[in-house]
Amino acid sequence: MPSPPLLVADDVSKSFGATQALSGASLQVFPGEVLALTGPSGSGKSTLLHCLSGILMPDSGRVGYDGRDLGALGDRERSTLRRGAFGFVFQFGQLVPELTCLENVALPLRLAGTRRRPAEQLAGELLARLHVSDVAAKRPGQASGGQGQRVAVARALITTPRVIFADEPTGALDSRNGEQVIRLLVAAAKERGSAVVLVTHEERIAACADRIVAFQDGAAVPAAVAR
Ligand SMILES: Nc1ncnc2c1ncn2[C@@H]1O[C@H](COP(=O)(O)OP(=O)(O)OP(=O)(O)O)[C@@H](O)[C@H]1O
């Protein structure tokens, strides 16, 4: 690939008590690419995602974003980076139950200081892009699991992040719904030039990525290149 990597994990190790979650994991994520992390339960995929996104600090090794060493940033700088440059989608959408779906999608922009009307206009456009305009005025509790995940994807996209971290975003959905959500996420991310780091157990979901990296025992094993 021509451009330098946007995210780099270099020989990253992380333990929780006696459990070694990562042991010398290295990985590169290039701008705009969709990368799937696969591997058995407990192989360290989520821990690596948390280290790459600055949520967790590694015990050793280095994580870099856009040429900057994440370990050298203070807590405040790291959280500014997370809010501005990164978007997140988790297994259970983690939407705010008291807000409507439209307000949930608009929230990251509102927190960044955008006025309500333009933020909600963009949120409405994204809900339409994800084919869930009909839940805009509903609260997340009134939406189905698949609709809720599409709303969560719209919320992750609204700031046009450079990287979207998605940890088992379809884990709570049936396979047909899960695949639809991932295809919409991948298409919308590609339109905006956002990279996606997608943790998944499911082969069909991983097959939607540009590149697949398999994890085993806390480190990446080079795997098949999807296309
Ligand atoms: N906060 C934590 N406290 C203690 N142990 C943890 C913590 N987070 C992860 N672990 C342990 O670290 C190891 C790697 O976990 P991790 O969640 O990264 O794996 P994973 O490949 O994402 O698994 P899964 O697919 O089941 O989510 C596991 O043994 C897990 O139990």
Automatic annotation (TrEMBL):
This is Putative ABC transport system ATP-binding protein. GO terms for molecular function: ATP binding; ATP hydrolysis activity; transmembrane transporter activity. It comes from Actinoplanes xinjiangensis. GO terms for cellular component: plasma membrane. Residues 7-227 form the ABC transporter domain. The keyword ATP-binding applies. Signal peptide: none annotated. Keywords: ATP-binding, Nucleotide-binding, Transport. It comes from the Bacteria. Pfam families: ABC_tran.
